[in-house]
Every structure is written in structure tokens, then in C-alpha cells.
Amino acid sequence: MHSSFCPPQRTLMGPGPSDVSPRVLAAMARPTIGHLDPQFIHLMDEIKSLLQFAFCTRNQLTLPVSAPGSAGMECVFVNLLEPGDTVVVCRNGAFGGRMKENVERCGARAVMVDSPWGETIDIDAVEQALKDHPQANALAFVHAETSTGVRSDAQSLAALASRYGCLSIVDAVTSLGGIELRVDDWGIDAIYSGSQKCLSCAPGISPVSFSDRAVARIRNRKSRVQSWFLDMNLVMGYWGGGSKRSYHHTAPVNALYGLHESLLILHEEGLQSSWARHKNCYQALAAGVDALEINLLVDKSYRLPQLNAIEVPEGIDEAAVRARLLSDWNLEIGAGLGELTGKIWRVGLMGHSANQKNVRLFLSALGSVLAASGWERKVDISQSLAAAANVFNDAEINR
Amino acid sequence: MHSSFCPPQRTLMGPGPSDVSPRVLAAMARPTIGHLDPQFIHLMDEIKSLLQFAFCTRNQLTLPVSAPGSAGMECVFVNLLEPGDTVVVCRNGAFGGRMKENVERCGARAVMVDSPWGETIDIDAVEQALKDHPQANALAFVHAETSTGVRSDAQSLAALASRYGCLSIVDAVTSLGGIELRVDDWGIDAIYSGSQKCLSCAPGISPVSFSDRAVARIRNRKSRVQSWFLDMNLVMGYWGGGSKRSYHHTAPVNALYGLHESLLILHEEGLQSSWARHKNCYQALAAGVDALEINLLVDKSYRLPQLNAIEVPEGIDEAAVRARLLSDWNLEIGAGLGELTGKIWRVGLMGHSANQKNVRLFLSALGSVLAASGWERKVDISQSLAAAANVFNDAEINR
After folding, report:
1. Residues A214, A218: Cα–Cα separation, whole Å
2. Structural domains in chain B?
């Protein structure tokens, strides 16, 4: 009846998970040891220090939450908010909406600053909301909106939060490792990410980091954190420094082997190089898509390189194309969410997936499937590939 | 500075994680696919059906929470409780205490029924509490107290809950797969477990199951579940049946490969055989420990086979012995928790770790370390091993 599961070998160019490096897969298969083993404690220290490197922070409270990114989001909100608090929340996609859900489930009030899906956050509108709500104690926004492919100006937003005496809360699920992100220099107070995007680790872990100001708020809460599992006052006892660790929960040992290896790969490459690689792959992809006369949804000035929202041409069945890419090319891309359902494809170039081979594969596959779908336009795959190659060649020459 | 982490090859005989089978390790290293991939959806269905097998239930709402057992515990409480509810909570160890924490963080009231650590739950006292608090809507207890090695009479307690119109909430973190547990036959309403105990998967996943009665309570809540991540009303949309799955969070794909493989191993062996193997290993271990004239803490009638609380003999430094077992024998056992700190060792025989080789290794190692520690008593390792061998031989003969 049942048998071992042997997954197909996909190329993952959706909104995440991204392709996981064989090094990371191998790490996860190493023998499990105890979560209080001295060697594991040593690994935890290394992971903390590598996460500080990835986030560009010296924050002591920097650690991987033992659950996916949505739990990392919840971790930040339940620790920082108390019932009755007011938070200004920016929403220009699905994940800003999820922040609102989290704020309200903490018994706090979310003041929403909305921008259309596909556009970036309007900083003036945010400032107005902060002026209108002087009681607000936090400003929350998404750095890289995975639902639309939009980058927000995290540096300016964090500075604005600070100017109005608010903690800045940043969703960096899709940004960490893929685009510039400097927690300390930008004055970010609380940030969460995910393992399965530009870190290219398996899904299931959420790196978080809290500034000293945020930690002070957590330590001085009037009410208890509503989640026992995510209560940083308790988690600190296990992840905190020193040789004496108190048991809180059993860490996901093998998943953390994987995270460590993925952070190591990022460390070997260097942050600047990783950011440059993502940008270069995106430019090549955009050139190739442009050559097919297909549009990208997002304005160039705030596009994410790692998540490309490609407009579905008129007369094309978006789901049928995705299904064909998966069945015939073993290539996964993502659908639109919410109001963009049916209107865009989301093509990820994240971490290990951001490479020249994948860009070429995607352009060939998309062109081929569109041509086979009886699209009215003539599809010239070689021109598309040549446009991408030009970008790669220019980058080589300029090196 | 940093390099890949190569863990030592330990034998895990603590309170969990237990030894992970090479089959499970290999499964976790298979290529990551998307969490909405049709092949992954198929795997999810298989996992659900294998979990139903393991729990002995036909509950539709049976699935693995994407986080460790403590999140599974929280998942059950936040979904079933509303502010102002009253829950009778049995506490005879650390994990009953954690249940109280969870109840209170939901804004509910915990009526505690305490028994001394190391003793089983007093059913008469529980009944009295249910009589004294007719407004109680749930009875919560731990089936296998990992902190003490005590089994509770889950069948009688669940029946009692039902008689008093309460939902029964059961912590089966350490019991699932190791001792008899029948969710449907015993009328259990909500139950959570962990991947890293008798299932011998890597830590990080928490199987849960809810009866129809419990699902009705979740669907008819007056207030929203305080956790977005653990809200079963949302999780059901992703794990529920049907081909249309709505995205909730990104499932920990590779960890679920591992869980699937570990459940498959349990399915191949059969529940009765697994329970019998755990019992047999425990009996051999107990005979060997007895031959060393060392006591087990817990009364024979409610001892857990999979978690043995061994009293530290007078004059022996318990931490030094554990450290020696780890450094010289690569053997991990656990320390006592709470009021049993320094007084017991906790020796696990869970899942893949419950085998003859491990029992012999433990007896040899313990005897050897005690002898080397200058213990006043004479240590006869061969007699201890012979006592264990007798148990194993008897089991062979009686087969």
C-alpha cells in the first residue's frame, strides 16, 4: 500500500522553496544528536554568529525560530505587542495583510496604510499615519513582498519609525540574502525571515533578530506573551549565551544542520556577491522576457530581483502554462495570489536557484510552452536567450 | 573560521531525540519540491493516513503540525480553549506543568490535580475535581510523562472526561508508537505527539489529531484562535482533503519526507510488534539494572517501557556519569528535571533506539563508568548482561 517517497527532481523557480543545494541536503542527513549535546550547543553558537553576519547585525537576540516563516512573523508580534497597543501596518500585498491578522490576534490595533498590489509603500502616507496616531508604538512593513515582487525602502521606513518613537518590525522572509539588508545600519528593531527563500535551505525554520530596544520591550512587558512556544523570555534561556542552557523545546536538530550549511555557503560567497548574483540573474531574465514581448508587473525602480512578477499575456491560460512547465520541464513557477490570481506568474531567482542555467531553462521552457499553446504571437526563443546571454556576458566583462 | 558541521555518531538513549534510522536520514536528504506540488499533496495524504494508523483513529483532522511537540501542545490548547474556560489539568511531572502554562496563556483557568512526581495520576482525585468544577469543559493529562517515566491510565481518564461532558486532551509526545494508544476506542478528543520519540524521526514535527467533537468546538468558537500559525480553521484549508488546497504556510518539506519514512517503518513493523519490542527491551534493561543493584524510580505497574527513570546511587555524581558516558561511549542519556534533578537518570528506549544492542551497550557502559568512578559497590557487568540476555532469550522462546 505505502512505499518510500521518491520526489521528482524539480527546478524550483517559484516563490519558494528554492532549489536546495546538495550540500544542504547532505547536511540534513547527518546523524541526529541531542539538542543539549555540547557539540550541538557549539553548532547553535555558530548558527547565531552566521545569522548575525547574514542580517548585518550585532544583535545578541538573533536565532532561528523552530518553525516556518509565518511562525517567525507571529513570534515577533506576540513578543513585542501587548493588548491595546497600536501598530501602523503597511500593506501592498498578501503578507502585509497577514501582519494585520497577527496584530489583531494580539489584541492590538492595526492602523493600515494601503498601497495597490504591485506598487511600493508610500512613505509620505506612512508618515501621515504616524502623525495621525501618535500613540502607535510600532511600524510594521514587508521588505520584499513575495506576493507581488515589490521591494520597499526599508532603510527610510525604519528611519521614519525611529523618528516617531516606534519600533520597526520588518518582514524579510524573501529579502534575506537576496538584496541589500542591514539591520544595524538601518536601525531595524525586529526582523524575521525564512529558510527556504534566498538562503536555499529546506523550509521550516525562521531566523529572527531583535535590537536591544526590542529586547527591553520584551523584558518589560506588563502581560505575558500569549504563546508559550514563541515566548522569547523562555527561548533566550535555551539560545542565550553561556554554557548553562535551560531546556525549552527540542530543537529541530537536522533542520538546523541544513540551516548552518546554507549560511556557510552564503558566508563563503559573501553578501555583496550574493546580492550581485541575484541582480545579474534578474537582469538577464528580464531581458529575455522582454525579448518575448512579455511585461513585468512591477516598476523597475522597486522590483525585486529574486521574485519576478510576469504578466500573463492576453489569451493565455496561466494555470495551463504552469502545469505544462511542471509536467514537461519539471520546472516549478508560482501563481499570482489574491487580486493577482490568474494575472501573473511569480518566477523566483532565489539563493541556489539564482544561476545562469536556471535563467536559460526558464526562458526556453516558457517560450516553448507558449509556442505550443497556440499563442498568436511568434515566439523567438533564440532571441530571448541571446538577450539574456548579453547580460551575463556584460557582467563577465565588467568584472 | 566556520566549516561544515560533522556531528559525532552518538547512541541516543535520553528522553529524546532517539536514534534516527538511516532510512529516515536518507529520506530527508531527497530533493526538495514545492509545498503545492501535486506530488507533495499526494505525500501529505499518505502522511495523514499513516498518522491515522499510528493514532488508531479515523479522525479526519489528523495532521503533522510544522513545529516541535511544544507547538503541538499549544496548537491543541489555543484551538480548543476560549478566554474564561475552565480546564482540569493533571500534573505529575514537568509536562503537566507546561499544560497549565498553556491553559493560562489562553485566558482560561486551570484547575490542577497534583500527584507527586514519579507517581501516576490519581483517578479518584480527578473525578472529584470534575465534580467540584462542573463548568469545566476539558480534562487534560499526559499519557507518558517524559520527565518521570510514568504512564497514566489514558483510557480511564478519557472515559471520565466524557462522563463529565468534558473534552479529553492528551499529551502523547512520548507514548505514540511505544505503548498502546487507541484514540478512537478510548474516546480521546484531542491529542498531540512529537516526531523525535518513539517514531524516531528527527525532531521538529508534531502530529496532532482532533475528534469530530473537538472539530465542532473549533468551528463554533466565539473568539478567534489567538495564534494565526496554529489556527486549525486555516490549517484545515491546506491539509484538508480535496484537490484544492489553499496556501497557509510553507510546509517543512524535507522534515515531512522524514516523518513519512518513519511512519512507514512503524507501519511495516505493526503497532502491536512495536509495543512488544519496547516492552521487551525495557524488561531486559530493568533486569540488567536490577542485577547492578540499582533501583528504578517508578512503580512497576505504571512504568513506561520507553523512558526509564533510574535512581542515581548514593555517593555517585550523576552529571559526571552522564558526561563520561557521552565522552567515552558516545552514549547520551538524560538528566532528571525539576525536583528530580541530580536524583535520576532518564534512559530512553524509543523507536529505533529500542533494540537489544542498545540495551547491552547501556548496561556495559553504565557498569563500566560506575566501576571507574570508585563506587563502593562491586560492579558485575557480566551478571547484568546475563540478566538482560535471559529476558531476550525468553522472549525468543515464547514467540
Report:
1. 6
2. 21-268 (3.40.640.10), 271-397 (3.90.1150.10)
